[in-house]
Each structure stands twice: as C-alpha cells, then as structure tokens.
Amino acid sequence: QVELAESGGGLVQAGGSLRLSCAASGSIFSINVMGWYRQGPGKQRELVAVITSGGSTNYADSVKGRFTISRDNAKNAVYLQMNSLNPRDTDVYYCNAHGVTKSGTYSQSFVSWGQGTQVTVSS
Fold first, then answer.
1. Residue 23: helix, strand or coil by DSSP?
2. 49-53 contacts: CB < 8 A, separation 24 or more?
3. The 3-state secondary structure of 83-98, one letter per residue
4. CA within 13 Å, CB half, 63
5. Alpha carbon 74 to chain centroid distance?
6. CA distance linking residue 95 with residue 47, whole number of Å
7. C-alpha separations of 71 from 15, 20, 52 in Å
8. By three-state DSSP, how is residue 104 classified?
9. Spatial contact of 91 and 39, defined as CB atoms under 8 Å apart
10. How do strand 117-122 and strand 10-13 relate by DSSP bridges?
11. Which of 11, 19, 110, 114 makes an SS bond possible with 4, Cβ 3.0 to 4.6 Å?
C-alpha cells in the first residue's frame, strides 16, 4: 500500500501564490507518474498537471503559464507551484501517483490518491 501525504493548501488573495507538496510512502519500487488533480462541489475531478519520472510534464490549459509541477524522485515527492491564483482555482487539490510496489520477489502496480488539500482564492 502506498500512502500520499499532501500539504500546503490554504487561503490566499487573488494574484497570490501557494505551493503544494505531496510525499509518497510505502513499499515503493518505482513511481512512473505523479500529478495533481482538483475537484469542486458538484464537479468531476479534473487534471491540473502531471509529471513523469523522466521529467515530462502536461498541464491543463487553464493553468498553463501560472502553475509549475516538479518532483524529487529520491524523495518520492511532487510539488505544485501555483502563481497568479484567481477565484476559479478554488477547489480541493488531490495528489496522485502511479507506480510499482515490491515486497521480496513480489511486485504489483499501484494507483494512489491523497486525501486532498483545500485551496481557496478570495477576490
């Protein structure tokens, strides 16, 4: 089992910045993709940004040029620097990871989600 622990959400004024962090723990052999998604009340969860172990990234059009995703493979961690925030960015943000766990000679793929961290942007 792989657990993801998020931190860094909060309340910020429009135009401000926040940095989200997420660290994975467990019997991790490798993490192929880490990313951030967000979900508001009554809405579907949507992709914000993802990053591969090799550093390739993909962003939602709504955050391009404002948000930057990065990761530290040695720490099994992913970060989301969010700049120029606006009220439409208000949501619960979830960390996600896809990879492989290994225990002895037994390996298994996994997909894990964090519990979510609230980001609120006031106008």
1. strand
2. 49/80, 50/96, 51/78
3. CCCCHHHCEEEEEEEE
4. 25
5. 17
6. 10
7. 24, 11, 9
8. coil
9. yes
10. parallel
11. 114
Measured CA angle at 63 (ends 58, 65), to 5 deg: 85
For residue 79, list its beta bridge partners.
21, 70
Write the CA distances from 56 to 50, 74, 100, integer angstroms.
Answer: 8, 17, 19
1 pLDDT more than 90: no
Q: What does the pLDDT read at residue 23?
A: 97
93 - beta bridge partners?
38, 117
The Cα 50–Cα 36 span in angstroms is 6
Name the 3-class secondary structure at 111. Answer: strand
Quote the mean pLDDT of the chain: 96
Q: Which amino acid is at 73?
A: N
Beta-strand relationship, 10-13 and 67-72: unpaired
